[in-house]
Amino acid sequence: MVVLEAKKVSKRVGSRTLINNLSFSIKKGQICGFLGPNGAGKTTLIRLFTGLIRPSEGDLAINGISVTDKRTEALMNLGAIVESPIFFPYLTGKKALNNLARLQPQLKSRHREKRVQEVLEMVGLSHAADQKVGTYSLGMKQRLGIAQALLGNPSVIILDEPANGLDPMGMRELRNLIRKLRDELGISFFISSHLLDELQQLCDHLVVIKNGTLVWQGEMESLSGKPLYAFTLTPIEKAAQFIKQHYPIDRIEGNQIYVDIHDDDLPLLNTHLIENDIQILGVEKKQTRLEDAFVEMMSS
Question: Which residues does the UniProt record annotate as the domain ABC transporter (predicted)?
Answer without folding.
Answer: 4-236
